[in-house]
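The records we work with from here on pair a chain with its fold. These numbers are not coordinates but entries in a learned vocabulary of local backbone shapes. To see the layout at work, look at the sequence and tokens printed below:
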Amino acid sequence: MNSFFQKIIAVIVVILVVAGGILIYKQSVAIDKLSAKLNLESSGKTPDTVGNVQNIVKNPANMSSLTDQQKDKFESTVKFIKGKVASVSGNALIVEADVPDWKKMEEIASSADLSQQYKDKMAPTIKKNFNVSTTGETKFSGDQLSEIKAGETILVNAKEFVSQTDNLTAIEITVPYQPVLPPGIQQ
């Protein structure tokens, strides 16, 4: 009788160990997905690019610290836009997005007066219209495509580099999108 109970306890222990292993594996996968999202890997940005973005956003006068090569690298790695929906038609959107105004940032960087005026303000942007198409693989955070209305602010992570085309294919659309400014930065 004693060995029968030992076998039952051994089976229970094995089941618990296997169940624990499965739970740990699933948590590990979820953590990896969250980490990838937080690191903005899906939008094609590298940590170096993120640091440059934050540095420029906090003070556009820092633009002068970027070399032309770094500026080109910055422009060729951005795969997202934030903007207002101008229209929705079928599986496509027209989004009026704010993109960096490189000429204005260079002007700010070359002028001490302008640098002082833009201290602790968002970097200057210009409006640009993008044609955003969705596919069956496009993920939606929040409203679905059929619920998106003109005038809403959205964030689009795209397959293409924003600086290279006006026609983007959405990987993920976040709507409604509420931007969070870095501490101490004014719009």
